[in-house]
Amino acid sequence: MSCAPTRTDDASHQPDNPQENDPARTNLLSPASRFQRPHGPPSGNARRFRIHGADVSASVAVFLIALPLSLGIALATGAPLQAGLVAAAVGGIVAGRLGGAPLQVSGPAAGLTVVTAELIQQYGWRTTCAITVLAGLCQLVLAALRVARSALAVSPAIVHGMLAGIGATIALAQLHIVLGGTPQSSAVSNVRGLPAQLADLHPAALSVSVLTVAVLLIWPRVPGHAGRIVRKIPAALAAVAAATAFAAFAGLHQARVDLPSWRSHALPELPEGPVLGLLAAVLTITLVGSVESLLSAVAIDKLVAARKKPAVRVPRADLDRELAGQGAANMVSGALGGLPVTGVAVRSSANVSAGAVSRNSTMLHGLWVVVAALLLVPVLDLIPLAALAALVMVVGVQMVNITHLRSVKKNREMLVYAATLTAVVLTGVLEGVVIGIAVAVAVALHRLTRTRITVEEQDGVHRMRARGQLTFLAVPRLSRMLSQVPHGADCVVELDGSFMDHAAYEALHDWQTSHTSQGGTVEVTGRAGGRISEPADETHGCCRPWTPWRNHHCDDRPRDADTHHLANGLSSFQRNTAPLVRDELARLAREGQRPSQLFITCADSRLVTSMITASGPGDLFTVRNVGNLVPLPGEKGADDSVAAAIEYAVDVLGVDSITVCGHSGCGAMQALLNSPPDGTATPLARWLRHGRPSLRRMKNRHRSWARISGRLPADAVEQLCLTNVVQQLEHLRAHESVARRLAEGSLQLHGMYFHVGEAQAYLLTSTAEQEIDEVFDRVAPAPSTLEKSHS
């Protein structure tokens, strides 16, 4: 493809395949395996520790955000202020090094503020540190059990409601400090005490807080060239710095940050208290911290995928490894007297936006926190506590996210969201989440059992509408309504739901079969009126819905049925598919073909191009030949048919891209690999001569080899299949029409590899012109409509 990946530091320190240098692996290869060689830079360079400049600048940006937030969160929990710095440093260094999300930044998070504050009030700070250590141990156990993905099964409405409830609780508590008072022990108490606090305002604290909030809100909105310059400084740092300077110059007397000597820093002690209460505390820290970290990792993956620059391939998050990294960080943070650690979306987003390319940025940010905690204590002691309280209050308000609220409303889960939010504010985080889950289950059961079925007649056509999910619970009502349709009548069944279980399907299918046998007609449609395909014939009951295009053999079919397989397929097309595509084909017949790309692939029968590219009529201009070869123009004995197709596609049809697609187990590549240099001049041998440059490229020790999704090819045949795709792309560039369009920037070339046995597509992510490894990356499944709506 047009963009080439730059290796991250992770890639430079870890081999792409632990078996790369294993001598036993070479025994699996054919005689051509003597050309195998290790990938990557020489061993001398592999051990050199390098840090990308983008990681350094990103780490500074994240550090400037994390420093005031860490102090503010520690203040909000009632923990020693140094505990916030310890958690930020440990989260950056330990979780950054061991975690599975390279660009996620970990540290003290607002999501655990309420939980930690309650634990400190109930058990004291040193026992809370011990609880943090035990929670980290639980996270390590969960990671070993590989249950990280299970955390994503929690309804987004519950997660958003939990965060909004925590944010509201934080904002109410910090509002008292902003006004110059002291927060109460619960959100309800803070609401009740607010009138008295408003009657007893402290002008010094209020003025500092108002300035902090004003800078936080105005800073990102400064217009023009000046705005682009000032926005390089994080708003949180600018707000705290402005408030500190104002308090110092105005000579305001108020509480400030007081970082005691590290010699008196409190460390954990053996937990004391009721066993069940301590277990509940450990469970709460574990669940809330794990869910927040994993959801943040998934969100950061989306941000990295959408980022245009820098064009660096960052691996997707390994959630089990990320959970293990969070567990290790919590154990270390608790042991050193720090707050609980989680992945933090705000700092992680800043890390991605600042251009970080590896986990080095996260680790460096932790190092800068250590340096600041040791060397900048006199500067930090100047910060007014009211400024930190105002900062955390704004963070709490922002946790009630309008975008999340709209998404929840769109998916009709406002009841779950509101119940979770209210329960978290009134009862606590763990209790609120449990109540939210109970409400979500009740809502799901209600929707599952609520099905409205109506039948009405319009112009002689009986229309039955089923609103809701069709389960076995709705079968009696469904059968009763279907019995109201007269025999021999025309009927349209409109299904407005996303689920139909086997019992409902059988009831509808049996009635449809009976009704049509008595002279009636039945058309099953979706909500928008689109027709749903009819069930497969009873003679094909053993086959799956995708088998009409599969060359399958049912056990109950006669052995000679394949004699008329083509005729049977044509008949099935005319009956089932033609009515659906007739309008589109008629349009293409009128307007002519306008394909978007030329697709050059092998003639192998296992490659169904329309299936693997999800394309339809008019989308692809396809050229198929043995070995997906592109002969060089003007070559002696060249076949002009491929060149003619290229010229027609590029100059006449004006395609935007050309894709060369190879595949696993290619017989042409096997024949090319085993053919003698001066073999018999059969038609196949003469054609395969156009693949000799690919064979020479693979044997050339001065060229880098192609890799497939970070691993070595399985054998020499697969290596030749991959190399052949890269070589044919070079042949394409030699064609005059292609070279001209490439120079204009109006044409793109793509390499693709399809593994037949895995049903997995891979795309080439580097150009053949560059002296780096060509990498074929796995193509991930596209999110479903439901996943898109939640994102």
TrEMBL record:
The keyword Transmembrane helix applies. Gene3D superfamilies: Carbonic anhydrase (3.40.1050.10). Residues 54-419 form the SLC26A/SulP transporter domain. It is a multi-pass membrane protein. Keywords: Membrane, Transmembrane, Transmembrane helix. SUPFAM superfamilies: beta-carbonic anhydrase, cab (SSF53056). It is found in: Membrane. Pfam families: Pro_CA, Sulfate_transp. Residues 1-48, 516-539 are annotated as: Disordered. The chain crosses the membrane at residues 56-76, 123-145, 157-181, 201-222, 234-255, 275-300, 367-395, 415-445. Belongs to the beta-class carbonic anhydrase family. Catalyzes the reversible hydration of carbon dioxide to form bicarbonate. This is SulP family inorganic anion transporter. It comes from Streptomyces kurssanovii.
